[in-house]
Amino acid sequence: MKIKRFLAKDMRSALAQVKETLGVDAVIMSNKKVTGGIEIVAAVDYDEPKKPAATAPNGLAGLLDLTEEKVSLGQPKVKTETKSNAVPAADSLQALLERQQSRVNQQIDRSNEELDMPAWAKGLQANDEPVKKPSIEPAVMANKNNKNTSVSSEIDSMRQELSSLRDLLTHQVTSLITEQKSRLDPVGAMLERRLLDAEFSPTIANKLSSLSQHYPPAELVRTLPRSLANMLDNQGDDIVRQGGVVAFVGPTGVGKTTSVAKLAARFAAHHGADQVALITTDHYRIGAYEQLATYGKIMGCPVKQAHDLNELEQILYQFRNRKLVLIDTAGMGQRDLRLFQQLDNLTANSRLPIRSYLVLSSTSQRRVLEDAVRQFSRIPLSGAILTKLDESVALAPALSVLIQHGLPLSYITDGQRVPEDMQVADTLALANQALSVLDKKEQAINNTERSHEQAYAFE
Questions:
Q1: Three-class SS string for 19-64?
Q2: pLDDT in the model for residue 238
């Protein structure tokens, strides 16, 4: 590399001197203003050509070159390479770059030598690899499983926190709405509280209490039973009127067998005992068939027992000429696995036009009734029968469940007598009976206050 300083009066003159002296390949290293003009430092990188022999002609020079090559064959290898490769000058930029490249190549070669192993070592490593992999992979999988477990646990905790926050906000908003309703509609708020105390569901209580915005208190007393009755779906005496194959399903102890006997006697009174037949699929409860057979013997109608679906099909084929065939199913809990098998058998054969009616007890709690309707809705339900009204304290839970699930009510039973204690459902009478608890609660509160006063007086 050749470096030279140039002085000129302006930049154009300085660049012209650089081009003339160093050539077009020159590089400007620096420039600055000095007294009298501009100072430029330029440099050029080039290989100095060999000086030709002054005395020898061209041919002799070529001969000398050949002799030098011949002589160089006997010299050491390093000198031959230096002459043939024409190593650049030590102070040139190209030499600097080549030296740097040679260092990098040496480091790469050294690393390759370190990684290079003999064949016997490679064989040992190859034999060790299958042994090491099973020990490493389970650890990696275990770490992944632990990470996934920790992430899923964190997500579950976040869901629980969000759920608790949602419940808290819902409770606060509900309380605010209740307070606002108490200020804006005191009659409706008081009516809603009484309906909830009578064990109506919150949805039904809210719908009925909203009537206070449209009717004055005096007229609201007469409108409330009619509104509740209109919410109920009543199909009337549809089983006796339509006939066909009807199955009674429901939980244990709700009175399915007694309801079957009452309905069979009711149908026999209108169409004759030769037009009705009874079938029981209850082979779990002791005396189930004997109880239904006793009712059939009294009424004069045949009673059969079916243990499976094939036997049920055969019996139904035998009673194909009967106008009404009633099937008494086995009572099972809502969470009994056998219940689902029994319900699937009723709907397995599409050739059997079986209509199913859900039998519910009016003495059950609202949550129990909701669970029963939810489980037995596995099969299409044509209607419901409400039993044990004579034993019930409040009809509000049963009516609320029937309204919310849109289940039609056909019959009610209020005693053990066959067939007297079975009637077609009267929705208005049921609504009045369910709402009559409101007055009884007020009387109970007044009686309690008097008893406390009397107790205090005797003290």
A1: HHHHCCCCEEEEEEEECCEEEEEEEECCCCCCCCCCCCCHHHHHHH
A2: 83
